Amino acid sequence: MSDLRALAADVIAFRDERDWKQFHNTKDVALSLLLESSELLEIFQWTPPEKVGDRARDQRERISEELADVLYYTLLLAHDQGIDLAAALRAKLQANAAKYPVEKARGRSDKYTEL
After folding, report:
1. What kind and span of H or E run contains 24?
2. Cα 37 from chain centre
3. Terminal Cα distance for the chain, rounded
4. pLDDT in tens, 9-53
5. Which of 11, 39, 41, 100 makes a 20 to 30 Å CA pair with 73?
6. What is the CA radius of gyration of the chain?
7. Sign of the four-CA dihedral 16, 17, 20, 24
């Protein structure tokens, strides 16, 4: 079993032990994913660019917790929608490799349409 599948199984078990599936419709899980992502961003809100590294070091535990929340809802949504996240990520990397060939994109932040 892949690490992602094992983690997803843990998430589903956690949810099902509490009988929370009844509350986890697709819209609300997607909304929760966005809200948790926003909580991650909130850590850096109003932080000057030159202080972001320091803030990240100082808030490492909180960042870890918010990333875990994001992953929780990502795994839950993927499971409920029957999406193999590992396969989806591999496919996305392959598509992005075609959009951003190394010889054109290396060291550049331009969108693929501008390379």
Report:
1. none
2. 8
3. 39
4. 999 999 999 999 999 999 999 999 999 999 999 999 999 999 999
5. 100
6. 18
7. negative
Residue type, 77: L
What distance in Å separates the CA atoms of residue 11 and residue 77, rounded to the nearest whole number? Answer: 11
Alpha helices in the chain (DSSP H): 3-17, 26-42, 52-58, 60-81, 85-99, 102-105
Instruction: State the pLDDT at residue 114.
Output: 84
Structural domains in the chain, CATH included, are 3-83 (1.10.287.1080), 84-115 (no CATH)
Residue 1 has pLDDT above 60, yes or no: no
Residue 36 contacts residue 66 (beta carbons within 8 Å) = yes
Q: Tokens for 71? A: 């992953």
